Amino acid sequence: MEKLYTLVTGAVSEIGQNVCKKIAANSPLILQGRDFDKLSRFKESLPESKDHLVWQYDFINADNLCFDTASFIESNNIHIKNVVHIAGIAEFFPAHLLNRQNIKTSFDVNFYSILDILSVLAKKKYKSFLNSIVLISSVSVHSASGKGMAAYTSSKAAMEIYAKSIAAEIAPARINSIALGGIKVNKNDGISKSLDSNISSYPLGIGMPDNAADMVSFLLSDNSSWITGQTFIVDGGYSVCKK
User: Fold this and answer.
1) Which ranges constitute the DSSP H helices of 24-83?
2) How far does CA 130 lie from the centroid of its chain?
3) pLDDT of 187
4) What is the mean pLDDT of residues 94-115?
5) Are strands 78-85 and 132-138 parallel, antiparallel or unpaired?
6) 234, 183 in Cβ contact below 8 A?
7) Mean pLDDT throughout 5-12?
8) For residues 186 and 236, which has the higher predicted lDDT (pLDDT)?
9) Taking Cα atoms as reference points, which of 164, 156, 238 lies closest to residue 194?
10) Which of 214, 217, 216, 208 shows the shortest CA–CA distance to 236?
């Protein structure tokens, strides 16, 4: 009998790791990412580590993703019941430098990857096993975003509209998006520094990875069994201040 798995893309990002730790007890996981060694080490840190699978895959220029998704399922003799799409790329380009290639890179990782995966899972052979799909988006889709974010926000907006558009088709499986505000991660980069300097825009403070993981856990659970096709803004009140 095939095992039922939860696929987590971007599993070794800080948000991905917190999500995996939160849900690992409820389902064996497929940990997707680009770094096999990092994925393998993280797998060993999870409870019931022997039950989880590693899927090393780069979503950039992934022209064979549909075929490779089906091959992964068949070769491991499993089925996928939940999907959490966290994999993403945030590259910023001012309008005069924006071109088809950098738009394509953002769309490849943020949107086309989940489109291809779900085009496989929506087939009759796999659809009956699907339960809940959660897509990680950004509050920048819904409020004024900074300069240079056109590629990023366009790809996230496409993902949200796609989820709403297919919700009826894939029912009784559910699909929802979470538009996250700023999440504090352990990176000494421009985004993290920008969050620190912009803390007054967050009435409830800057978010932590656990805040994202809690919402993902809710949308995967039976407590959200009558919710589909929705986007939930989880941003500590940032969008309220921006209006």
Assistant:
1) 36-45, 65-76
2) 16
3) 60
4) 95
5) parallel
6) no
7) 98
8) 236
9) 238
10) 208
pTM reported for the whole predicted model: 0.94
Do the beta carbons of residue 55 and residue 34 sit within 8 Å?
A: no
Backbone angles phi, psi at 117, to 5 degrees: -60, -45
Give residue 86's identity as a one-letter amino acid code: I
Type of residue numbered 230? Q
C-beta neighbour count of 101 within 10 angstroms: 7
| Separation CA 85–CA 137 (nearest Å) | 9
pLDDT of residue 142: 92
What distance in Å separates the CA atoms of residue 12 and residue 181, rounded to the nearest whole number?
20
> How many domains does one find in the chain?
1
Among residues 57, 79, 78, the alpha carbon closest in space to that of 68 is found at: 57
**Which helix H or strand E contains 101, and what residues bound it?**
helix 100-107
**What integer best gives the mean pLDDT of the chain?**
93
Instruction: Look at the block and give the residue holding tokens 């096999």.
Output: 36
Pairing of strands 3-9, 78-85: parallel
Q: Is residue 202 over pLDDT 70?
A: yes
Cα–Cα dist 204/181, whole Å: 11
Q: Which residues contact 154 (CB under 8 A, 6 or more apart)?
A: 103, 106, 107
pLDDT in tens, 35-93: 999 999 999 999 999 999 999 999 999 999 999 999 999 999 999 999 999 999 999 99
Residue 125 makes CB contacts below 8 A (sequence gap 6+) with none
CATH number of the structural domain spanning residue 54: 3.40.50.720
pLDDT digits (tens, 9 = 90+) for 14-33: 999 999 999 999 999 999 99
Domain residue limits at 60: 3-242
